[in-house]
Specification:
240 residues; 2 domains; Heat Shock Protein 90; seven-stranded mixed β-sheet; alpha+beta; 10 strands; globular; 6 helices
């Protein structure tokens, strides 16, 4: 007979609830560490409980736009999960701001009961001060030169093993690579971008053994910008 840690709870169930408890503790510690206001949104989509942290900005409309976008992504991601219980913890990690643009990135964990490991998630939103959502192709010219620079920076920033994952992905999608990057940040795409004070970050999906995604940052001076992005982007907050 399988031993239990709590009355009526199997070892597998006990491990699952311990993982949930650990996640709650981590979220509490994150709230304590953040000096600026942090919003916490909780809810349930089918059998999945989710928690989303998002930045509270001085502009209420921008705060609401970021929160609603993160919630929309969460609901769409969980849309096909109908049977097993699980959870999703989603927290914002970086936010950069200019006079006209705000760019936020989120990291998260998605886990299902009785699965071997959680899935790592990455998502971003970039909006202007009128709450219009921007995609990579709105501010960066996507062409063969962009892809070449991405590979160069990936080679410089990652180990050969991780770089090979990006290179193989680009090679696999060689005939459609420009179209894929043009769809980056749009619904149905698994590619996401964000801005930092001196670069544009790109996340590419990879096998779970490599973390489910790999992020590469390209210096702004190495891409062709389509709009006037201030080079002195103000760093509002960054934590890990």
């Amino acid at each position: 007979m399988e031993s239990t840690g709590f009355v009526g709870v199997s070892k597998k169930g006990h491990k699952f609830y311990r993982y949930v408890l650990l996640t709650i503790i981590i979220l509490i510690l994150l709230v304590i560490r953040v000096s600026e206001p942090l919003g916490i949104l909780t809810g349930q989509a089918l059998n999945i409980d989710y928690t989303i942290s998002y930045p509270i900005l001085s502009n209420a409309k921008l705060t609401r736009a970021i929160k609603e976008d993160a919630l929309q992504f969460t609901n769409k991601f969980l849309g096909d999960e109908l049977s097993r219980k699980g959870g999703l913890d989603f927290r914002y990690t970086n936010i950069y701001e200019t006079d006209n643009i705000i760019s936020v990135s989120f990291e998260g964990l998605y886990y299902l009961e009785n699965t071997a490991h959680p899935t790592n998630l990455f998502y971003t939103i970039t909006i202007d001060n009128a709450c219009r959502k921007m995609i990579l192709a709105d501010y960066v010219k996507i062409d063969d030169d962009f892809v070449a620079v991405l590979l160069q920076e990936a080679y410089a920033q990652h180990s050969l093993e991780f770089y090979s994952q990006i290179y193989d992905w680009v090679l696999e999608h060689d005939e459609t690579i420009i179209a894929l990057f043009n769809k980056c940040d749009q619904e149905g795409s698994y590619l996401y971008s964000y801005l930092t004070h001196d670069s544009v970050g790109i996340s590419i999906p990879v096998h779970h053994a490599y973390g489910d995604y790999i992020v590469t940052e390209i210096p702004l001076e190495k891409v062709s910008l389509l709009i006037d992005i201030k080079r002195d982007l103000k760093l509002v907050k960054i934590f890990s």
